[in-house]
Amino acid sequence: MKRRKVLHIITRLILGGAQENTILTVEGLEKRRGYEVALATGPPLGPEGSLVEEAGKKGIHLIMVPEMRREVNPWRDVLTFIRLYRLIKQGNYDIVHTHSSKAGILGRLAARLAGTKIIVHTIHGLPFHEYQSRWVNCFYIFCERFSSLFTDKIITVAAVMTGKALTAKLAPRKKFATIYSGMDLDRFLNPGVRVADKRKQIGIAPDLPVVGKIARLFPLKGHKYLLEAAAEVAKVYPQVKFLLVGDGILRENLEKQAEALGIKERIIFTGLVSQDEIPGLLAVMDIVVHTSLREGLARVLPQALACGKPVVSFDIDGAAEVVKEGKTGHLVPPEDSKKLADAIIDLLKDKEKARKMGATGKRLVDPAFRVEMMVDRIAELYEELFLKHKKV
Q: Is the pLDDT of residue 327 over 70?
């Protein structure tokens, strides 16, 4: 039987949740489900780090599109569209599956004009949100509505994302499917590190409480609110350490903020780390904090819970689907540093409560967030679309 050909397209393969999701999806569809899959992407520009090498190690067929960038640039975007159209036309793909806004808009239009039978798009995070101007949001909503006209199925990574997309009237309800972002859960259920050794490597004493956050150092990740909360927590727990994993354009600003708040010695910036290090870093944390102001369903949330760690998160987007208030962690209002500090202090104060929350979290995410489940659901969705297409 002829293998079905699938082309996935994502704007860039930086270190990020959408990119990890896409790589695991492509790998799983090829090795687990027998599809012939390629992945087209632009250059991984920026300080966030790259997953291009990681994709290569997994044997993924990568196709570089040099003109494809995240920033809007009419000339470069036209060149990207032309290149994608030619790629899709020549490749004669059965399915084109896009990820992220730029690749989603240009890739879906190119696929439609190239005559692709089935077009799928995954929304990892909606491009419109309250932290942008109304006009920018209107532009993105228009683009998403237009693109959905020639999209067979839209996958969201959280039920709340589907709700927001429906409220914005991006597409009819029947076009949406929610599939949680899968991951190699075993790496987090059993990190395979000695916590004492890992702490020593980082420079943290075995008995000190550690609060951690894993995210790029970018404005919408909300690090400044964590630092404000850290200053309050340090008044109650002077020896507490805050471990900030990741790098980005705000590194210098955040270091200055920590110094101004008098907590410079309490904060550890790890800089860029490989994905292989994440389970070990989560293992040394007592509490994991998530302060992003917009996110589909951050992968670090189920990862932290799989490690048995309670989570304190801003109540945004899909967070409430895994952070169950009082059961797997605490949810606090976005941008509220005081309530964030109170929630952290509550868990530092009651270690048994924190332990029980972590144990409950482990049961919640396994098997719901296993990569095998995600890949199987996407493959089933593909086959449903093929059957539907044959009947037309």
A: yes
Place of tokens 């991006």: 170
- Pairwise CA distance, residues 81 & 107, whole Å: 7
Confidence class for position 358, pLDDT limits 50, 70, 90:
very high
SS3 label, residue 15: coil
Cα dihedral 214, 183, 286, 203 in deg (nearest 10): -60
Q: Which tokens go with 246?
A: 């990741």
* Average confidence (pLDDT) over 40-48: 89
* Strand, coil or helix: 42: strand
pLDDT of residue 283: 97
Q: What is the DSSP string of 312-358?
A: EEE--GGGGGT--BTTTEEEE-TT-HHHHHHHHHHHHH-HHHHHHHH
Give the N- to C-terminal CA distance of the chain in Å, as an integer: 22
**Least confident span in 148-157, 193-202, 254-263:** 193-202
Cis before 367? omega within 30: yes
Q: What CA–CA distance (Å, rounded) separates 296 from 125? A: 4
Tell me the per-residue pLDDT of 115-146, one tens digit each, with 9 for 90 and over.
999 999 999 999 988 888 999 999 999 999 99
Say how far apart CA 112 and CA 319 lie, in whole Å: 34
Q: What is the pLDDT of residue 392?
A: 59
Concatenate the DSSP letters of all residues of 208-275 into one string: S-EEEEES-S-GGG-HHHHHHHHHHHHHH-TT-EEEEEB--TTHHHHHHHHHHTT-GGGEEEEES--G
**Owner of token pair 């101004």:** 260
Structural domains in the chain, sorted by start = 5-182+370-391 (3.40.50.2000), 186-365 (3.40.50.2000)
